[in-house]
Structures are given as structure tokens and as C-alpha cells.
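Supplementary material to the annual report.
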Amino acid sequence: MKGVVFVQFADFIEENFGLLFWDQVLEVVDPPSGGAYTTVGTYPDEEFLSLLSHICEVKQLDSGDAQVMFGRWLFEKLHAIAPPGNKAQGDPFAFLRRVQDVIHVEVKKLNQDAILPEFRFISETDTCMTMEYISPRHLNRFCEGLILGLGDYMSQPLEVVHKQSILNGDPASIFDVIKKG
Ligand code: HEM
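Predicted assembly:
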């Protein structure tokens, strides 16, 4: 996983639980990379998952809920480094299509080793978009968090309703993104 995610994860944990806690987490988990993450690096997914799982155990958090919290917080940071001309404005559903068709494509061009999810858009009305999330990482809940963060950023509250999850043995991960209010 790209270093930008690790660097932001460290910031997220420090902001919520303090620098001392993050240092303690690194000491206990003792990640193979040493934990001095940089935005230009790439680190094993397992490191992210072990850090997350340890934090959830200590703070008694559900791992899925923690992924949503982190994704929601992260959206603004990723949005800030999106290639020029890709600001979230207008319709949030159009922006989600742009993430798939433009933003993640550009990210992949610049970072050959990035693993980006694929979105398949199944149906769309004014208020509900049904989409499939495809990734070997199965970060469905992290994806949910990013979408909620998009809603926060655009002042358009969004809700993500999971209809199928590969994590529950379903053939695919499919969810509705619903505009609220
Ligand atoms: C609501 C909007 C977005 C959604 C739903 C979304 C979804 C995701 C998800 C789920 C991942 C985790 C990887 C995976 O599941 O395989 C990811 C990774 C990533 N996304 Fe997005 N994304 C969004 C916006 C953005 C934006 C604006 C950028 C700006 C450059 C961005 C750049 C990245 C990068 C750098 C990674 C890490 C790739 C890696 O570690 O290999 N995303 N995105």
C-alpha cells in the first residue's frame, strides 16, 4: 500500500489518540519496515492490517468501523493531492465516476505499484447509485468511509448501504450510495 496511506494513518491515530499511543503501537506491533513511513514509499498491506488490528484490540473498536472512520477522515487529504482539474464539485455521483475513470488511472500511471480498486456502476438515479467494489484488498468499509468523506466535503450527506459483501461469502461487494436530505 502506498506510503501516503500509512503517513496519513499515523496522523489520524496521533490526532485521535496522541503521539505517545502511536509510538506504543509501533513498539508492540514492531512492523518489518520499522514504522518510519514516508509518502514516497510502498509498504506491505499486512503492516497496515496488523497496526489496525492492534489498535482496534487496545481501543476496543470494530475493525470495519475503524476503517470507515479512517476513510472518512482521509478523503479530504487524498482530494488535496488529486491531479489538477479533479476537484469535487457538482454531483457526488459524477465525482465517484471520475475517481474510477480519471483519478485512480492517473494515480496508477504515476505509481506503477499502486493497487487501485475497480468500481462498476450498476445503476443510478438522482438519489441512489448502486456500485460494485472490486479489489483483492476487500477494503469495503474503507471505501465506505471515503465515500462518506466525499459527502462531508460536498455538504451532501451520503449513506452507504452494503447489499452484498465478499467478506461474508457473497460473490461480489455491492452497495448503494444514497443522497440523504
Ligand atoms: C470518494 C472517492 C474515493 C474512493 C471511494 C476511493 C477508493 C479507494 C479505495 C477503496 C482504496 C484502497 C485500495 C483498494 O481498495 O484496493 C483507494 C486507494 C487509493 N486511492 Fe482512492 N478513492 C477515492 C478518492 C481518491 C482521490 C481523490 C485520490 C487522489 C489522488 C485517491 C488516491 C488513492 C491512492 C493514492 C490510493 C492508494 C493506492 C495504493 O496504496 O496502492 N483516491 N481508493
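The chain has a mean pLDDT of 97.
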